[in-house]
Amino acid sequence: MPAVSQGLVEFANQHREGPAPGIEIIETPRYRIKLQPDFPIPGPNSAEWIRCRAEEADEVIAEVRSIVAPRDLPLMWILGPDTEPPDFASYLAARGIVPDMHGHESAVMVLPVDTTIPSPLIKGLEMHDALANADAFRAADSVNSEAFQSSSRTGSALERRRANQLAAGNRRVILATIAGEPAGSAGLTLYPPRGAIINGGAVRARFRGLGVYRAMVARRLEMAREANVAGLVVWGGPMSAPILTRLGFQTVGWRRFYVDTSTV
Questions:
Q1: pTM
Q2: Are 78 and 184 members of one domain?
Q3: Closest by alpha carbon to 63, among 88, 93, 26, 99?
């Protein structure tokens, strides 16, 4: 198994996404807010990198909520090993901010770019650039919505998301089809040379167990190699982490998630 570089580990644990088309960042010494109005679900809209004194915790929660509430967006509070105070989750709980029912904790995982992942042979499987046209992007988003049991996004907001990802220049979205039918979707964001972040890996229920998820990881690894990055980074949840471990990903940290709907 290829060795994991310290640089890739640091990227996995310390990377902070900057402002980009469709993404607003509000950062203070005590917290960092990321907002994506065209993707109105917790996760894309988040508060993390909490660094405050215990006596400031209530004030930080109130301040973040006051910023997000006028945007009418749900919020995901994301905590990690370096969150201060360490018991910040208890302050969230006292205000009705609960662990995410879809997965309270994810492993921060990395894979060196020179790892080999044989792509499984799946009859009729094809990989498409989902940013190439509106129909492909809509199909990829529908797969994601179905797999994660969230509402489908339609109309101008969806097309703005596609336009923003194209404008960013470092985004990639895969649509996997089997015999022409949408089967899976997956995202990749490139930050050469430090690393690439994979996310949104989803497979429709009827196509699970065939190796579609593995094939999409293998394809994104190829794309990362072509971009000359050090490796892949992913937050592996309860369903994906065991698969990723078998593919060679190594755990180097963790994140915990708390849903706040008071801002809607």
A1: 0.94
A2: no
A3: 26
